[in-house]
Write a structure and sequence with these properties.
Layout lengths: L28 H22 L17 H6 L1
Amino acid sequence: MAKKKQTNKQRQIGKTTIEKKPLIDPKHKNTYWNVVVLVHLLIFFIINNTRDELAQGPYPPGYKPIKVETIMQN
């Protein structure tokens, strides 16, 4: 009978690493986050300045308003 060739293959189970591809290219990652933050700040600025201002309420108890005329005379 003929002899079978035995090849000594080393099994690579668990030894191969899959290279993870980043979602955002690292070269553009900083620019992306800067744009995201600026857009959020712009949205908050627009929302804050387009709302109606509340009517002024009464002064707190014990508050005595100072008249400008009395300060200027001293």
